[in-house]
Design brief:
single chain; 60s Ribosomal Protein L30, Chain: A; 2 domains; 7 helices; elongated
Length: 257
């Protein structure tokens, strides 16, 4: 039974190791100690404890080498996986950088095309937004389009049809916060609704835009571009915004089962 006690002792002494090399040494040592004890007992040259000691040293060394090799393999696998993740992230960032650069170049091009028109352009949440101040489009308190307004709308529509054919278009109407006094509208909502619908009708009836491509939205004073605390800011808030929606095929909808 000495060889069994020797193997048990080897496991007790070496199993406290926490690395793969230490665990391998423990396992190898236990096997070596047991084998050495049996060999010594059968050969009669060493007693079981001496044989266990020789087996423990030899098996522990071999087990440690195997465990160390396993550690290297596992660490290499982790390093390789992290390298793949880093490369993927770098690719994503490069793609986003290209997308932002392309979008900026696109906006710069559009601004160049409309530089002589009273139109401002911005990109927001995947949309392209053309803003025209109401003073260009309408007389005060009116919803009929002025000649200068028609020219501005024509220039915007030309760009949309060339750069974004077939895209959905929303015409937003906005006002300042001054209440309606004498123009006959019930509220700024009604005024902004009538103005945005006037643009929609113009695009459909005079410019041949497909009706299903267009919609009108009335915000009144409730989505200001600036605080309604000065004449200059109120002027900025009185505006029409022609919103070109993202391409439908690029819109992803999360569906919950």
């Amino acid at each position: 039974m000495k060889w069994l006690m020797a193997g048990t002792l080897a496991v007790t002494v070496l199993a406290s190791g926490c690395t793969s090399a230490q665990k391998g040494a423990a396992a190898g040592g236990a096997i070596g100690a047991t084998s050495g004890a049996i060999w010594a007992n059968n050969a009669g040259k060493l007693d079981s404890w001496e044989g266990a000691g020789v087996g423990l040293a030899t098996g522990g060394l071999i087990g440690a080498l195997i465990g160390d090799g396993w550690d290297y393999y596992q660490n290499k696998q982790k390093d390789d996986a992290q390298g793949v993740q880093i490369a993927a992230l770098q690719g994503d960032l490069a793609g986003k950088d290209r997308t932002l650069a392309d979008l900026q170049a696109e906006l710069d091009k559009l601004r160049g095309e409309l530089s002589q028109k009273p139109v401002s352009i911005e990109s927001k949440d995947g949309t392209i937004r053309f803003t025209i101040l109401n003073e260009v489009l309408y007389d005060a308190g009116k919803a009929e389009l002025r000649p200068a307004g028609l020219a501005a709308l024509d220039s915007v529509l030309d760009v949309i049809q060339k750069e974004y054919p077939g895209r959905a278009i929303i015409v937003e109407g906005h006002t300042d916060s001054d209440p309606i006094k004498s123009s006959g509208w019930k509220s700024n909502w009604e005024l902004s609704a009538a103005r945005s619908l006037t643009v929609v009708h113009y695009f459909v009836e005079k410019k041949g835009v497909a009706p299903e491509q267009l919609s009108a939205a009335a915000f009144g004073e409730f989505k200001p571009a600036a605080a309604n605390d000065s004449s200059a800011n109120k002027r900025l808030n009185r505006r029409a915004v022609i919103v070109v929606m993202p391409d439908a095929k690029n819109i992803q909808v999360d569906r919950q089962s």
